[in-house]
Structure formats: C-alpha cells, structure tokens
Amino acid sequence: MDFSQTDYALRARTGILQNILSALRKVFVFDPGLTAQLMLTIPIIAGGIVLHLNAVQWLLVIFVTLLFLVAGIFRTAAMLQMRHDSSITPFHATRIKLMGNSLVVITAGLSLFTYLLVFIPRILVML
C-alpha cells in the first residue's frame, strides 16, 4: 500500500471548502444588506445572554436567525447567477427577484414574531 499519496476525498474536500468560502465572500461583497442582516444577530444574541434564555428558546432563536441569514444568502446567490446566465429572460429575472425578496421578507417576519414570543415574556418578568 502506498501511504505517500493523500486521499482523493481529502483533496476534493479542501477544494470544496475553498469554493464555498470564496462563494460566500462574493455574496457578502455583492450584497451589503446581508452584512446588515448578520449585524442584526449581535443584539439578538446579546439579548439572549442578558435574559438567560433556556435551551428551547435558544434553539428557536438560532433556528429562525439562521433561516433569515440563509434566505438572504440564497437571494443574493440567485441574483449573482442571473447576472452570469444569459439564458434567463427578463420575465424570469423579475420572477426570481420577487421570489428572493419575498422569501427574505417572510423569514424576517417569522424571525420577528419568534423574537417577540421569546423575548417579551422574559422582559416582562424582569420588570
């Protein structure tokens, strides 16, 4: 057996990780709103720490926050794909933009509703 060669799966995995990181870098450079979404998570996490959330509440907060961030990443990735794919018609481009924005708005509403359900009772107890 020849142990001097690295396993192909390990080499492929490293390339995939680099591709994912470079794609995320492009997404964050292209969409400054996504950076704002990421910055909105800081007060949410700080509020959870201050209010001593339990495990279920943390799970809800982290789940909807990640859902909100992933929706923004998918929207921006779709926009970048539209720029580089010449086969997408203006009609389809409009539909893709509307669906991406709708997805972000829906997840933002769900996140806000969940944050209110989690944080308001804790704040009322502290008062």
Structure description:
By secondary structure, the chain is mainly α. It has one domain (about 10-125): Helix Hairpins. About 85% of the residues lie in helices and about 0% in strands. The protein has four helices and no strands. Helix 1 (about 10-30) packs across helix 2. The longest helix has about 35 residues, at about 90-125. The radius of gyration is 20 Å and the shape is elongated. The protein starts with 7 loop residues before the first helix and ends with a helix. The relative contact order is 0.11. The model has no long low-confidence stretch (mean pLDDT about 85).
Q: Roughly what fraction of the amino acids lie in strands?
A: under 5%
The run of helices and strands is HHHH
Largest beta-sheet details: none
Number of domains: 1
- Report the strand count: 0
Topology:
Layout: H1 8-30, H2 32-50, H3 55-84, H4 90-126
